[in-house]
Amino acid sequence: MSDSRTAAWDRIEALPQASLSDLFAGDDARVDRLSGRIGWGEGEDAAGIRFDWSKTHLTPDLLDAFDDLAEASDFAARRAELFAGEAINVTEGRAAEHTAQRGSGSEASVEEADALRTRMQMLVEAIREGALGDVNHLIHIGIGGSALGPDLAVDALTRDLAYVDCHVVSNIDGVALEEAFAACDPATTLVAVASKTFTTIETMTNAQSAMRWLREGGVSDPHGRVIALTANPERAVEWGVDETRVLPFMESVGGRYSLWSSIGFPVALAAGWDEFAAMLEGAAAVDAHFRDTDGRDNLPLRAAFADQYYARVRGCQTRAVFAYDERLALFPSYLQQLEMESNGKRVTSEGEPLRGPSAPITWGGVGTDAQHAVFQLLHQGTHMVPVDFIASIAPGDALDPAHHAILLTNCFAQGAALMAGGNMSADGKDPAREFPGNRPSATILCDDLDAATLGALIAFHEHRTFANAVLMGINPFDQFGVELGKKMARDIEGGAAEFDASTRALLKASGLG
Fold this sequence. Notes:
Blueprint: H1 3-14, H2 20-24, H3 30-33, E1 35-40, E2 47-52, H4 60-72, H5 75-84, H6 107-128, E3 137-141, H7 145-157, E4 165-169, H8 174-183, E5 189-194, H9 201-216, E6 226-230, H10 233-239, E7 246-248, H11 265-271, H12 273-292, H13 299-313, E8 318-323, H14 331-343, E9 361-366, H15 375-380, E10 387-392, H16 402-420, E11 422-423, E12 434-435, E13 441-446, H17 451-472, H18 483-494, H19 501-509
Parallel strand pairs: 3-4, 3-5, 5-6, 6-7, 8-9, 8-10, 10-13
Antiparallel strand pairs: 1-2, 2-13, 11-12
Helix pairs in contact: 1-4, 7-11, 7-14, 11-12, 12-17, 13-17, 14-17
């Protein structure tokens, strides 16, 4: 770690730690200073998201010190490299060009992304016009980012209207695939196989089983019902997919950042092309803010300041995310991969041991369900857990407005209660009814939860993850930790390795060894 980064961290760690109540007392400007908005559209179509970080322990002095840390970490230079399409993924020697899919990147990469997106749009429109016969169902097979992003977006955007009944399958457990089969008619089903290399064992095993299901269901040419989503189109053609139904994406687009590429095919088919395009528009608005805004006014960077403060200074090992909107039920799971696979690292970009903690454990759920499950620990447990609340001002339902009013009331009340604390006993002295308070939270309040907003939410967290990585000095774009267990699984299958006594016993008990 450079001397300037060490000095910035020394300054951050030496600053006094005031309570949240004290920080609010007498500071009428605190909410405005620590809130911001990212918007898109104009006139009546203007929309956006409010980001309120005032219930965190950030102070003007801390923000000054974190600004210094960002400068010492060459944040502006790293950000410029990201948007320029330079090889910022240093361990694998390639760029990370997910923003190019949304129009921000090198000219050549943006043009390539536009061409590939046009190819996907033409295929989506051809399918909708009947070029592949009646299509009522889509089974999308992938794993990791090839499944989590599509699953989130399809679930969020097709609750009112789905042009195609979409089932996302990632688990190699055959129960998951059988569940999709049971809901679909082989005669009117397409299968999307999403794999960057088109060699991922879980995905390709599930794809082979889907081919058998189609054949047994009377489909004479199962491969003719497959859409391949891959950065290795040659391999997909070798596997049996006609090249007209292969939707490539760029090698420089990582799996957990790939929703904006052809991996978003099930979103475009099930929700409609206009919805997919709107999702890109919302993400592009966040890209512009992140690219063009410096220092603490950069909202993803400000969020990273708070993340780093709680992980390193306060020793918080987890961060919780609660979406007070049923349409975002899968959002915490999506963030788990984005944040922990990106920033769960032990060494810096230079290969030096990381000084301090890496990414915290991301977890969460849906409000108000979570209030009756895990909020006991958040309010009265011994752990300090920073919490993000996400909500929409506009309801997602057409029922009595009381539903949404109660939902929002609960969301805002939880943040207030975490901060204020108190004692609910009659005399105010019962320790079992004591709430210490001073527990941090942030609120992300959307005007509405539509496709553009979903795109903006995802892009905000992508950039927040990148900003955290820069402040820690790590590479967020590789994921070698995913590979070790997979390699050992292959060793078991091939009988090529010796294992510990416990593993040998488990293999024997399972009939595998």
